[in-house]
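User: Quick sanity check before I run a bigger batch. Here is a single chain. Can you write out its predicted 3D structure?
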Amino acid sequence: MLETYPFTGRTASEIAAGVELAVSEGRLPPGAVLPPVREVAERAGVSPGTAAAAYRLLRERGVVETAGRRGTRVRPRPASTFREEIRIEAPPGVRDLSKGNPDPSLLPPLREALAAAARAHEESPAMYGTGDDEELIALAGARLRADGIPAEALAITSGTLDAVERVLTAHLRPGDAVAVEDPGWTALLDLVAVLGLRPVPMRLDEEGPLPDELARALQAGARAVVITLRAQNPTGACLSAARARELRALLAASPEVLLIEDDHGSGFVDLPPYSLAGATARWVHTRSTAKAFGPDLRLALIAGDPVTLDRLRGRQRLAAGWVSHLLQRAVAHLWRTDAVDTAAVAAAYGLRRNGLVAALAARGVTAYGRSGLNVWIPVADETTAITRLLARGWACAPGARNRIGSPPALRLTVSTLTQEEIEPLADDLAAALRPAPTGRYG
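Assistant: Done. Predicted structure follows.
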């Protein structure tokens, strides 16, 4: 096919546009190897510099990837179905434990916080060019520094994923490798695919990513690493002090790697965050308010090195511009008034999570859930287990949404599980599941 494909155009943009059209029409299929730059230049009758610029445009658009000695190839097309869409619709009468939401009864009331934000708006409305809320920045900085996280430079985004997307886009190009947890957060795995990045899975245990897995990912050329500090989704893993020291040492030996650490557990997890911030030259720490204050309060505080935060803010200005100051002031009010009793909320979730893990252990079923809202249960076959559970009146999430290469499992969100439900659920899970593997998550 490549022998007959005509590379045409007099400029880099025209050559790149022709290749992109051929890819979209299927004339250049995924995996097709493109000729070397000099051959393209000869076919199109242009200089090698023009041909090289065309290839650069195609890489930036995510159409092709350069794989060293294997040459330049057409990238696989993004999947049409996102991982988030792999779900089980619970029929009427089935108890749904698949959604991943916090318990509404443990979220703080927002009436006074929103009223305070409205009063502040009436006194001093935020207009174009207004900076981030000074009180929120000050409160965030104090909280981050108290947890040992450098907070000299801060930014505010519309949630963790918003920050991660902007930072990855600012630092990486399509085809670059990103080390991600496996199993991991579905939205992140979807984002990596959409951006044309190559995921390098890192398996983990209850203390976080395994050091040899991070080492392998770095050796494989990962240009960025994403690590969850606590309440890891879906396993509940929480980075320990010892594991943090091991990972920090590995990252310090690769200072050019971008580190992204996710602390969405702030406000509902009582285990401390052992940060890796500063182990590399380029890093960000994201602290989301969604799980503690409510998913609709989409706001995250971001600390990072000055260069990375400057790039993040620049891309933010070109898109959304800023995060609503009404939301910023509402979050500042919630923090200032200690609207969430973190210890009490964490204890409530822990009672449900630990109760189910213990009940399953008593029945010979291995499950994980050191922190957060979920319990992760290795199974022999996800489809069979889910079908049997549905027949018994329970819906859970298939682990396939979260997995790259790790073994099958189920994710149960226990945030709204009552104490009266734990024993019946454990009985039904034990009856529905075949003997499951033990040990590491994968």
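The longest helix spans residues 342-362.

User: Great, the batch can go ahead then.
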